[in-house]
TrEMBL record:
InterPro entries: DHS-like_NAD/FAD-binding_dom, Myo_inos_IolD, THDP-binding, Thiamin_PyroP_enz_cen_dom, Thiamin_PyroP_enz_TPP-bd_dom, TPP-bd_CS, TPP_enz, TPP_enzyme_TPP-bd
Record-annotated Thiamine pyrophosphate enzyme central domain positions: 216-349
Key word Nuclease present: no
Keywords: Pyruvate, Thiamine pyrophosphate
Pfam families associated with the record: TPP_enzyme_C, TPP_enzyme_M, TPP_enzyme_N
Designated name of the protein: Pyruvate decarboxylase
Taxonomic source organism: Thalassospira permensis NBRC 106175
Family note: Belongs to the TPP enzyme family.
Domain Thiamine pyrophosphate enzyme N-terminal TPP-binding: 56-127
Length: 609
């Protein structure tokens, strides 16, 4: 056996650089790194040595780098991913929130946090967590519940098994999620004689598991018996490359479609069978069909509460769920008729077996009524009132072309965008709403731009999310990956303030002006974004915003536009109840009133049914 002598870190990066997807391009776009003790000597030397064969980028915050990596994978439909390496201790734990985000959203990312010395000679090292009863614990154990595969590399040759396991997880459609290889710092620097074959190019073909034949029969029988079926398109439709297969299936059988947050843009917004978004932040058209459907065909969706209206949306007494999902875990949820398989293949197979089954015609007024409602709330306002989020969305929408990608994650905007954004092309809508993590937006936008350099990337972000994490805006400038960021400043956590009041609470500790303070908050977002190298300007009206968007589109580097907005309004049209537990006893009459309404609403919930 021919061998090559390399350190464990050199072997890791060489191996990773040789992994390809079925398109013959490297699976890994490269590696984000913030060095410290625990990775600068080992991983740092290795990454420097491999150079452009496995490019390294420097970020400003480990969580931000990880968000960029995760967004890159999502915008690549999981066909490509990135690695993120950190020091031990805070550098590593800074990444745990991002690991949870990737875990919830089933997105591939490889985390390589440094770890304590395997030989324990210098224990306890700087930043080492000491467990009094367990010598094997380190800070990196925090990754275990939020990794699909976790390993601690304590001997160099463990990489011979750990790395293929990591790749198997990252490229498996059902198991896909974050992998953490906690890399002991002394081991990174250790040399070993590696078989040369370990570094052969390896191609990971996209797996398309086929459904069991009995499951297919059950699905076909359920659809044939359905009087009003409806499809819910989830993120899995994108990841399976099944957008065309979905449209073909829907049209052939005349079955209307509603889209989840992750599924949105699976079908063009103006397709007559795309009835819009579904659920708590859904369109009245899609929700009306969902309420009366006797068969919900869930395709590639986790069926989270925003999709199901906390399991109160589907009201037909005899309704069944038919769940097509590559993951058995998801397909089996809520007593569904489970079909475990790839969305693209399974839709085609079921379609072939269904013959000329067609669902009844849908009342076209449902959709036209909804679009009229969208156009009304997104129209340019007259008068001088502070604009609403919906009006800002309208202005941004009018300013971009069909290729644009809108990016968002938390606050009031995801709900408004879900309802109102008209997504024309697949992946044109990138809203992280599995973890809805404040601070994902700008870093995520950077990752999207790295995956889709030819498409305009517009990040829409609230003042709260911007303040939580914005530093990768500087990275976008430094790396020349232009993003347009629209900052909606409503002076606080507007959506939580609204939720607080809707559950009977006093407006408290959400808006900056009513939060306890000595000096009133006066954050200059324009100056802040400008200080990071972005071109920044503030606008004072919707028409000024549209003019600024034009300048932003022509600019050659990242651009930030700040606009003051009204924290109180949100779009009334559409939507559905969401289960948020209201206190059972309170001295506040408004809470007691909200509790009464809550108990009435709970009667609509059908858990487990
Ligand atoms: C990391 C994180 N912390 C807390 C929350 C809970 N949360 C959701 S939205 C929100 C407020 C967001 O404020 P902003 O970005 O200004 O948007 P707005 O609600 O004003 O539209 C909070 C605190 C969260 N989703 N993520
Ligand atoms: Mg806000």
């Amino acid at each position: 056996m021919k061998t090559v002598r390399l350190t464990a870190a050199q072997a890791m990066v060489r191996y990773l650089s040789k992994q390809q997807n079925e398109d013959g391009v490297p699976f890994f776009g490269g590696c984000w790194a913030i060095f410290g003790h625990g990775n600068v000597a080992g991983m740092g030397e290795a990454l420097h040595g491999i150079g452009d064969d496995f490019p390294t980028w420097r970020g400003h915050n480990e969580q931000g780098m990880a968000h960029a990596a995760i967004a890159y994978a999502k915008a690549s439909n999981r066909k490509r991913a990135m690695t993120v390496t950190t020091s031990i201790g805070p550098g590593a734990t800074n990444m745990v929130t991002a690991a949870a985000l990737a875990h919830v959203n089933r997105l591939p990312v490889l985390f390589v946090p440094g770890d304590v010395f395997a030989n324990r000679a210098p224990d306890p090292v700087l930043q080492q967590v000491e467990d009094f009863g367990d010598g094997t614990i380190s800070a990196n154990d925090c990754f275990k519940p939020v990794s699909r595969y976790f390993d601690r590399i304590m001997r160099a040759e463990q990489l011979l098994t750990a790395l293929p396991r990591a790749m198997a997880t990252l490229t498996d459609p059902a198991d896909c999620g974050p992998v953490t290889l906690a890399f002991c710092q002394d081991v990174q620097a250790e040399a070993y004689d590696w078989p040369e074959s370990f570094f052969d190019v390896k191609v990971w073909k996209t797996k398309r598991p086929r459904a069991d034949l009995d499951q297919l029969d059950a699905a076909v029988a359920a659809i044939k018996a359905a009087k009003q079926p409806m499809i819910i398109a989830g993120g899995g439709v994108h990841y399976a490359g099944a957008c065309d297969a979905l449209a073909e299936f829907a049209h052939r059988h005349n079955i209307p479609v509603g889209e989840t947050q992750a599924g949105k843009s699976a079908m063009p917004w103006d397709d007559e069978l795309n009835l819009g978004s579904i659920g708590v932040t859904g369109a009245s058209s899609a929700n009306a069909i969902a309420e009366n459907a006797d068969l919900i065909i869930a395709v590639g969706t986790r069926l989270q509460d925003f999709t199901t209206g906390s399991w109160a949306l589907f009201k037909h007494p005899d309704r069944r769920i038919l769940s097509i999902n590559v993951a058995a875990y998801d397909a089996a949820k809520h007593n569904a008729i489970a079909v475990t398989g790839d969305a693209k293949i399974t839709l085609a197979e079921i379609g072939g077996m269904l013959g000329d089954y067609r669902a009844p015609a849908i009342d076209a007024n449902l959709k036209s009524g909804w679009i009229a409602a969208v156009d009304k709330v997104t129209a340019t306002p007259t008068g001088n009132a502070l604009p609403t989020d919906a009006q800002v969305i309208g202005a941004v929408q009018r300013s971009v072309d069909d290729d644009a990608i809108v990016v968002c994650a938390a606050g009031g905007l995801p709900g408004e965008l879900h309802k109102l954004w008209k997504a024309a092309k697949p992946n044109g809508y990138h809203v992280e709403y599995g973890f809805s993590c404040m601070g994902y937006e700008i870093a995520g936008g950077l990752g999207v731009k790295m995956a889709q350099p030819d498409r305009e990337v517009v990040v829409m972000v609230g003042d709260g999310s911007y303040m939580m994490m914005n530093s990768e805006l500087a990275t976008s400038v430094m790396l020349g990956h232009k993003i347009i960021t629209v900052i909606l400043d409503n002076r606080g956590f507007g959506c939580i303030n609204r939720l607080q009041m809707a559950t009977g609470g006093e407006s408290f500790n959400n808006l900056l002006d009513t939060a306890r303070h000595v000096v009133p908050s006066a954050i200059d977002f324009t100056a802040h974004a400008g200080s990071m190298g972005a071109i920044a300007e503030k606008v004072s009206s919707i028409s000024e915003l549209e003019a600024a968007m034009e300048r932003a589109r022509k600019a050659d580097r990242s651009y930030a536009i700040v606009i003051d907005t009204d924290p109180l309004p949100s779009t009334d049209a559409g939507g559905h109840w969401w289960d948020v537990a209201v206190p059972e006893v309170s001295v506040r009459p408004t809470v007691n009133e909200a509790r009464k309404n809550y108990e009435a609403a709970l009667k609509q919930q059908r858990p487990g049914d």
